[in-house]
Automatic annotation (TrEMBL):
Protein's name according to its UniProt entry: Putative GNAT superfamily acetyltransferase
Keyword Transferase: yes
Keyword Transport: no
Alphabetical list of Pfam families matching this protein: Acetyltransf_1
Lineage: Bacteria, Bacillati, Actinomycetota, Actinomycetes, Micromonosporales
Gene3D superfamilies: 3.40.630.30
Keywords: Transferase
Source species: Allocatelliglobosispora scoriae
Highest taxon of source: Bacteria
Record-level Gene Ontology MF annotations: acyltransferase activity, transferring groups other than amino-acyl groups
């Protein structure tokens, strides 16, 4: 079985195990339903501020990726992506409130992986908020993707319920679909980020960002993220903003020294290594 056939088989198995049906969306009615789901996920006044139905309809009609996950007749997840320069850019992926954390997002991404490989695309890229720990774990460990670039305030001000009042710093993700990391993750054996010997550049102390004592010697480094930044934004917006500044400074200063993010540890810290000191290639 080649990598494409295996990817599609894995996607079907994962969806079937969860009782989901993941399919491409084409009709305007399906796209309107997808837009409403997206509106709910982002707590937006209108789907137009995230991605609207007519845009999804145009994407689907022109050979791009628009898919939905159904539990019975209920649409519980949506993913929208468009073709870029030699890759697929995953613009939006969301799961209906009340169904999050149950594997719907994973089923959608594995379907997207199979679809992409079937269409001759071996790389999917997207952005995510680096302060959201669960998304970092999902992207870097559960999918086997790589974080390659830090993008300060990438989208500018957004007015939806998730992003309003915050700067939109993002990490750029590249998912090499036929890589050992992606294949192992799809099979349920993701690679662990081994923090042995790593020094702490930024620590989490009772939800507060605390500078570590890492020496700039080229050795591996750990950069912590808060346990639940979304709850922290509600409880203490000033502390959440302090995390944004601290994480941005820690990551960008390290990347400019030639480091790369090699994964995220089980305790929720980014692990960064310098290429000249790599011990465990990804």
């Amino acid at each position: 079985m080649d990598v494409t056939d295996e990817a599609e088989a894995v996607a079907r198995t994962i969806a079937g195990r969860l009782g989901l049906r993941v399919v491409e969306l084409h009709s305007i009615g399906d796209c309107i339903a997808a837009g409403e789901l997206v509106r709910q996920v982002w707590d937006a006044a209108s789907a137009d501020s995230v991605v609207n139905a007519s845009t999804m309809r145009a994407f689907a009609h022109s050979g791009n990726y628009v898919a939905g996950a159904y539990a019975g007749d209920l649409l519980v997840g949506v993913a929208v992506a468009f073709r870029g320069d030699g890759h697929l850019h995953s613009h939006v992926a969301g799961v209906l409130p009340g169904h999050q954390g149950g594997g719907v997002g994973h089923a959608l991404k594995q379907h997207q992986r199979g679809w992409s490989l079937r269409h001759g695309i071996d790389r999917v890229a997207w952005t995510f908020d680096p302060l959201i720990r669960r998304n970092a774990v999902f992207n870097l460990r559960k999918l086997g993707a790589d974080a390659t670039e830090y993008l300060p305030d990438f989208y500018g001000p957004l007015d939806d319920g998730v992003n309003a009042g915050d700067v939109t710093d993002r990490l750029y993700i590249e998912w090499h679909l036929d890589s050992p990391a992606a294949i192992g993750a799809a099979r349920g054996t993701p690679a662990d980020a081994d923090p042995a010997g790593a020094a702490t550049l930024l620590a989490d102390a009772d939800d507060r960002p605390v500078p570590g004592s890492a020496a700039p010697d080229g050795g591996p480094l750990l950069i912590a993220v808060p346990r639940d930044i979304e709850a922290l934004r509600t409880r203490d917006p000033h502390l959440a903003a302090a995390w944004r500044v601290a994480l941005r400074e820690a990551v960008t200063s390290t990347l400019t020294r030639g480091y790369a993010i090699s994964g995220i540890t089980r305790t929720g810290s980014y692990l960064l290594r310098h290429p000249e000191h790599q011990e465990v290639p990804r």
